[in-house]
Write a structure and sequence with these properties.
Strand order of the largest sheet: 1-2
Shape: extended
Oligomer: single chain
Strand content: 5-15%
Order of helices and strands: EEHEEHH
Largest sheet: 2 strands, antiparallel
Number of helices: 3
Helix content: 10-25%
C-alpha cells in the first residue's frame, strides 16, 4: 500500500487495510430547497434537537443528518410528529464500531469539551488485560 499525507509519500507493508471514509447524505434529488429545508456546507439537513428541519413540517434523521445514525432517534421523531416535544442529544449518544477489537465512545470529544470549558478526565482500558482478546492472541 502507498500512503500520501500532505507532501510526504511512504510505502507501508501490511496484510489488511481498514478504510473508514465516513458517509455523505444522499439528498440531492429531493429538491429540499423547494420545501424550505436548509442544508449545511456538506449537504446534510440542518436539524434542531427535536430533529425538525428548517421547515417545521419536515423531520430528518439517518444518513440525511450529521449525527450518529441510531434507531432510538426514530422514536423521538415519531413522538414529535405526534405533537410531542421530545429532544435528542446526539452528542451524548454512545457509538460503537464493530471491529476486532471493538471500539466505542460516548459524549463529547476531548477537544470539544475543553473548548466548552468542561473539565476532562481521560480513562483508558488496555486490551492486553482482556481475557477474550488474550485468547484470540491479540498483543496490543
Amino acid at each position: 500500500m502507498e500512503l500520501s499525507l500532505n507532501e510526504s509519500h511512504e510505502t507501508i507493508r501490511c496484510e489488511l487495510v481498514l478504510s473508514a471514509a465516513g458517509r455523505v447524505p444522499n439528498c440531492d434529488s429531493l429538491n429540499l430547497s423547494n420545501a424550505g429545508v436548509k442544508r449545511d456546507e456538506r449537504g446534510f439537513i440542518e436539524i434542531s434537537e427535536s430533529f425538525r428541519s428548517s421547515n417545521e413540517n419536515i423531520f430528518a434523521l439517518g444518513d440525511a443528518v450529521d449525527t450518529p445514525a441510531h434507531t432510538a432517534y426514530a422514536k423521538i421523531v415519531a413522538l414529535n410528529i405526534a405533537n410531542s416535544s421530545s429532544l435528542g442529544n446526539a452528542h451524548l449518544s454512545p457509538t460503537a464500531i464493530f471491529t476486532i477489537p471493538k471500539i466505542a465512545s460516548c459524549g463529547l470529544k476531548e477537544s470539544e469539551a475543553k473548548g466548552r470549558g468542561i473539565e476532562v478526565e481521560i480513562l483508558k482500558a488496555y486490551y492486553k488485560a482482556n481475557a477474550l482478546l488474550q485468547s484470540r492472541n491479540f498483543e496490543k
